[in-house]
Design a protein that fits this description.
heterotrimer, A mainly alpha (270), B alpha/beta (325), C mainly alpha (261), A: 270 residues, mainly alpha, C: 261 residues, two-stranded antiparallel sheet, 13 helices, 2 strands
């Protein structure tokens, strides 16, 4: 990466960050939105788990609260949603600028989302405190500390998986007038097949089977599982391996779709 | 009869200063500098029924703020105003039914529907009887020459056509007072002309009191016998346009072209030389002497053509503004 | 009063024309209904694969609650949602000024701007879901359904309107929160579940400050037979209070906007 390119990317990042700081109300609202809908599930699972004697399939209160608190953390750092922004840019034709400019559009989108995520995280910090207290209150997750390097790695690998899937959904705007249906399917799927409504052990096995063929499980559920419970090393390594495979596959897929989309875009014009 | 009375009207705004840059953005999360500005500063004026008054001033002069106070959108910081006997910011329904405001480049009509649908909504909001509604729409559409576009979606119309529709929508309820905020802004030359003609005709026919703001000289020249010049929230001049010229202009502009080259020195005694070239000169000559000087130039110098002109109004206004700063 | 009815007629007619022109909305809304209702139906099944009841609510009861929740959401988005949602944008781009100069109640004009007839079909899906839930779970007495239900569902709708309006009135105070509807949805999402599951303290909050119980739970309780007389009174009081609060806050916000803007 040349020096000039780096400066260009830094400027983009800086400008978007400034803009998002001005729109911090926006980021705050979305942070609350995620917190609220995610926050419902630990309460429900608490009740169900207690009714079943304190544990179901390895999930007890302590593990569940950790699972969902870190799901909230993940939603503020890792889970990026470039698809709406991309849909808007492609539809409005604003994206034409980036076809001419000599830098990668996806990198630009990634920087854009990262700047937004930074502000999201800032908005989240005051809520992180009571959430950490909640974890302590319910028994903490000290047991998983030896897994920490795997947890960090799994979280880092989760980011590109989710980002690329979202970007591919954003790219459907090259073909669809209104990609709202595609985005809705994406959100519903990431919720269900990402294990957000329940960890997979608590869901019917068929859902786990389907989810294993999809990327969501490895972008959301897998790192959260490692944070909440002690997992055998073999399983951890296997999961990390699958994450790498997904990253590679999605990278290739997104490049192909991008090229095809671009061709259609210049043919159709805006 | 006095329709509009404004006494010592003032509007102060608070705003936050924000410097550009990332560091400043982060700092502004914790502390922002609060500043004040007087958009309208202690102004007073009155308008009689049927007058067409022009508010002239540069951007940010306070014109729009004044109109917004007179339409009841904003409360003043201090001072009073009465329009048709009402205090505008009390927003009494009886007052609201008797005035209309049109803002240039701002759309009150539904974008994705024909203008007629928006008219029908206004009809119900302002309780315009069916017969009057039909008559008014026909009459105005005829006058503005847009009878055939009333059923076309507003977003498909040109800006000029849209503004005409906006005017009709505003005039459906036969308001006694009309506030026009920059009505010709952004329009092409032909549309501007048509708009001015319409406003003038409407004012003459219906005796509607009209307050018009603009930063275009041509609007004011074409329409207003009386102008109020406003800058930085203060009134610099309030009176007839003709008197303004009388008061602020003491010279006329003489443009001469010659058949043979003329020295600068030969012209100096007739007046102030603004431009000079061997075959052409432009002089400012005091009004009292212009006839004498013109006659002298014609007899003594090899003149091809001579033109005696008024100082352009903009120049006068500009002089007033710069003097004020 | 008749004048407002005539204005309403014009606005409804115009909304209908728009809906006919863009028929895609009907398909999108149906797709949405099937997708999300199906998803949460599945989630309920997952919960009840482990237990027979959650805080006293059986699977059938919870399905009724989901149906009621969705019904009120569809009613809201079919009537005032799109109108009120515009408030932050109207304030930001200055078009609120025009609305304030009209000799009509501005709150009414804002809310009645856009009806969505495309929400009628999802309503049918909601009713089907409620019927199914009542068929496999408990069902209330005739009294509760004929007398209690109309009262609490209307109170629920009015409270939904008030909360939505209250949040959007913040658009007069903060410049850049045109996504405040997302905050409403975040809070609203909690109403899908019986509030007792959140513990006593939150339950108390949900009866008063953030009246989710009044909005969603009580109408469902009326149908499945849990509704008590005290709760009906609570519903009436809370909905009246919130309507009053919404009105007062809106008027105050407009006054402030006119002084400070």
């Amino acid at each position: 990466m040349t020096d000039r390119n780096m400066r260009k990317y830094w400027t983009i990042f800086r400008v978007v960050l400034e803009n998002n700081l001005m729109y911090r109300g926006h980021a705050f609202v979305w942070m609350l939105f995620d917190l609220l809908w995610i926050g419902v599930f630990p309460f429900i699972w608490f009740f169900i788990i207690n009714a079943q004697g304190g544990e179901i399939q390895g999930w007890n209160n302590s593990a569940i609260i950790v699972y969902y608190v870190f799901m909230a953390v993940l939603s503020n750092i890792v889970l990026m949603h470039p698809e709406a922004h991309m849909a808007y840019e492609i539809y409005e034709g604003k994206f034409s600028n980036y076809v001419i400019k000599p830098h990668s559009y996806l990198l630009y989108v990634f920087l854009h989302e990262s700047a937004y995520k930074m502000v999201r995280f800032l908005a989240f910090i005051p809520f992180a405190v009571p959430l950490i207290w909640a974890i302590q209150h319910f028994g903490g997750s000290g047991a998983v500390l030896p897994q920490l390097p795997f947890i960090i790695l799994a979280t880092l690998l989760a980011m590109p998986i989710f980002f690329l899937v979202a970007a591919i959904i954003g790219m459907t705007c090259f073909w669809l007038e209104d990609s709202y249906a595609a985005r809705t399917i994406f959100w519903a799927s990431s919720g269900l097949f990402g294990g957000q409504y329940a960890p997979f052990e608590l869901m019917p096995p068929i859902l786990n089977t389907v989810a294993s063929a999809l990327p969501f499980k490895y972008a959301i559920y897998f790192p959260l599982r490692l944070i909440s419970q002690q997992v055998p090393r073999a399983e951890m390594l296997r999961g990390l391996g699958i994450q790498l495979v997904w990253i590679a596959a999605l990278f290739v897929l997104s490049s192909i779709i991008w090229k095809k989309g671009l061709k259609r875009y210049s043919a159709v014009g805006r | 009869m006095l329709i509009i009375e404004v006494k010592n009207l003032t509007k102060k705004y608070e705003y936050y200063k924000k410097a550009p840059g990332l560091l400043a953005s982060v700092k502004s999360l914790f502390h922002r500098e609060k500043l004040y500005t007087k958009a309208v500063d202690n102004i007073s004026f009155s308008v009689e029924e049927g007058e067409l008054v022009g508010f002239l001033g540069p951007n940010g002069a306070g014109k729009t703020t004044t109109l917004k106070m007179l339409s009841g959108i904003l409360y003043p910081t201090s001072g009073e105003a009465r329009v048709l006997g009402y205090t505008p910011w009390e927003r009494k329904k009886q007052y609201q039914k008797q005035f209309a405001i049109v803002m240039g480049q701002k759309n009150q009509l539904w974008w994705d529907l024909p203008a007629m649908d928006s008219f029908i909504l206004n009809k119900e909001i302002y309780e315009v009887p069916d017969a009057q509604f039909k008559q008014t729409v026909d009459e105005l559409a005829e006058l503005l020459e847009i009878k055939d576009i009333l059923d076309v979606q507003v977003r498909k119309l040109s800006l000029g056509q849209r503004m005409k529709c906006e005017l009709i929508a505003a005039l459906l309820h036969q308001p006694k007072v009309l506030f026009l905020d920059e009505p010709t802004i952004g329009l092409d030359v032909v549309s501007q002309q048509k708009m001015r003609e319409f406003i003038k005709t409407y004012n003459e026919q219906k005796k509607t009191t009209i307050l018009l703001t603009s930063h275009y000289m041509e609007d004011v020249e074409a329409l207003c016998k009386r102008i109020i010049i406003i800058d930085h929230g203060q009134i610099l001049y309030d009176g007839a346009l003709a008197d303004l010229m009388e008061k602020y202009v003491d010279h006329k502009v003489l443009t001469v072209t010659f058949t043979k080259a003329v020295e600068r020195g030969d012209l100096e005694k007739y007046g102030e030389i603004k431009e000079s070239a061997p075959f052409r000169a432009l002089l400012h000559i005091p009004k009292t002497e212009v006839k004498k000087s013109a006659a002298a130039i014609l007899t003594k110098l090899p003149v091809d053509d001579i033109l005696i002109d008024e100082v352009p109004v903009e120049e006068v206004i500009r002089k007033i503004f710069t003097a004020h700063r | 009063m008749r004048r407002y009815f005539r204005i309403l007629k014009v606005l409804v007619r115009v909304s209908f024309i728009r809906d006919i022109v863009f028929r895609g909305a009907f398909y999108i809304d149906l797709f949405h209904a099937v997708l999300w209702l199906g998803l949460f139906f599945l989630v309920i099944e997952v919960f009840f694969s482990h237990t027979e009841s959650i805080v006293g609510w059986t699977k059938g009861n919870l399905i009724v609650l989901l149906g009621i929740w969705s019904l009120l959401d569809d009613l809201a988005s079919g009537t005032f949602w799109e109108g009120v949602k515009r408030i932050p944008t109207l304030v930001a781009d200055g078009n609120m000024d025009f609305i304030l100069t009209r000799p009509v109640d501005s709150q009414f004009l804002i809310a009645a701007e856009r009806f969505r007839f495309s929400r009628v079909i999802p309503l049918i899906a909601d009713i089907a879901l409620i019927s199914y839930g009542l068929s496999i779970g408990s069902i209330g007495s005739l009294w509760t359904i004929l007398l209690g239900f109309p009262i609490v569902i209307i109170a629920g709708y009015l409270t939904v309107l008030s909360v939505f309006y209250l949040l959007h009135t913040l658009g007069f105070w903060f410049l850049r929160i045109d996504n405040i509807w997302a905050l409403y949805e975040g809070i609203e999402n909690i109403g899908k579940y019986p509030l007792d599951v959140f513990g006593r303290h939150i339950k108390l909050v949900s009866l008063t400050v953030v009246p989710l119980t009044v909005m969603f739970t009580l109408p469902a309780e009326a149908l499945v037979g849990f509704l008590s007389g005290a709760e009906v009174i609570n519903a009436l009081l809370v909905s009246a209070l919130f309507l009053w609060l919404t009105r007062k806050f809106y008027q105050y916000s407009v006054r402030r906007y006119s002084s400070v803007a």
